[in-house]
Amino acid sequence: MLSSSDISAIKSVINAVDVIEAGTYLCGHPKINDSTDVCIAVTPDSFAIFKGSDQLGAIPKSAVKQISIEDKTTIEQKVTAARVLALGVFAFAFKKKTANEMGFVVVEWTDERNLAHNTTFKIEGDGSLAAANTLRNKLINNL
After folding, report:
1. How many whole angstroms from its chain centre is CA 135?
2. Which terminus of the chain has fewer CB atoms gathered within 10 Å of its CB, N or C?
3. Longest dimension (CA), the chain
């Protein structure tokens, strides 16, 4: 949960019109290497990804192609297909982790080099799909 001091600190760093809790950043941004809890500061030109008052990266609004939500089953199917490709028949020998209810928000965008990125955020726990849908809607409404 973001504190009012966190929100004020973020707004003082950039010209943010809103600060939105985004769950856990998982992957898909070329400037962010580690999975961590983040928030998104909405500026006139971008979605800036923050951990505390530190900006980790940004997604230019003009570069966004799509914002979607996915559930745990959809993500697992994609991961299972990738595991089979990577590990062959041995993919089924490795145990998969079990997890709570999860919702994922995927922001599809292209950078200045025209490379495609799928920046993914995970929200866990009861009501996670509803929370993921709310995050998606807030991002879409701020495009």
Report:
1. 10
2. N
3. 53
